[in-house]
Amino acid sequence: MADGLGIQYTTTSPAMGGASVSSHAADAAATLPGSRPQTDASAQSPASNVGIGTSYAPDIPEVQSKVVARLLQQNATIYGPGLAQIPLPSRPDGMPRLAPKKPAGPMVAPRTLEGGQSPLAPGSLFDARASVDGIGEQPDDLGETQVLANAKNGAWRMPSRHGLVAYTTNARGDSVYLTQERWLHIRENHMDQSPQPRGKRTTTFWPTSHAIAGPSMNEQQVIGVIVDAARKGTLRTEVRDTRMSEYDLPADQAAAYGVSEAKVSMAPDGLVLSAYPGAGDNVLAVYEMSEADQVELARVQSNRTNTSGQVDDRMFQTNVAATTFG
Fold it and tell me: What CA–CA distance (Å, rounded) separates 7 from 163?
């Protein structure tokens, strides 16, 4: 994990509840044309029609639900009961990430965790690192017993003994840390458990257990991306004074993982609340919908498929430059 303090973890701590900031991909529908242009053939001479190509817009049947209309625009499909699967394409090459309108507010000091004095205090981190490095050194005048005693004491004060999974700083020098409890939240809601309605509009999954084309990441790689996102990402202020760090993965990682964008939500003191992928061709994203919307989406898709016995696969026009993604 580059320049970040990666720490071993266990999975015995109980998961803590807490709000997870979910992706708003379903609100950022792609811009599609409305209908085919109508022309009056009698008003044109045969010569004027020579060499003019014909382009088509997709047939989108009229629907009653705005949610279903938006899902159809995004080429959503039914994933399971109450869930639609939506693609999360990466931004087109050369399209820069929009900078926040104003800088994110200042961060506050990290909270005190278990064990009294916060293990994030610089003194604790320095003492722990120096003592652990002393293991195996030649005994000095104080004797080997004293060296080992200092090392054991320092090891006890390592952040992993206080429930930390990772610790780093962002580009502004603010402390950012991931606790065991929040790591379990990320695993339970964005990695391990099968997609199911959970009261969030959209949920995206790291490609560890649930992916479009099969697993492409392991847990340590996810932690590494979270740390990199916290260190190098674009920091924004969110609702309730939380912070969001948005990060574009390097091209080699994006190609290997099928994840091109990561998002890390943090409390004002740098505690990572949640982390999830924001785009990528191997990112599974599910949108929660009502039973009525699911019935209507299934009806429209069935009509599309049954028309002429096959899906309309003609080329259609779209303004890619105006397309936005969540």
Answer: 10
Judge whether residue 96 has pLDDT over 80: yes
Q: Which residue has the tokens 């009525």?
A: 292
Statement: residue 116 has pLDDT above 60: no
Percentage of residues of the chain with pLDDT beyond 70: 59
Tell me how crowded residue 250 is: count the other CB atoms within 10 A of its CB: 12
d(CA 279, CA 260): 6
Token duo for residue 198:
């959970």
With residue 111 as reference, give the H or E element that holds it. none
| 144 shares a domain with 66 | no
Whole-number Cα distances in Å, 28 to 31, 83, 94, 199: 9, 18, 19, 19
Domain containing 296: what range? 5-32+60-90+163-308
Would you call 47 exposed, middle or buried from its count of C-beta atoms within 10 A (0-12, 13-18, 19+)? exposed
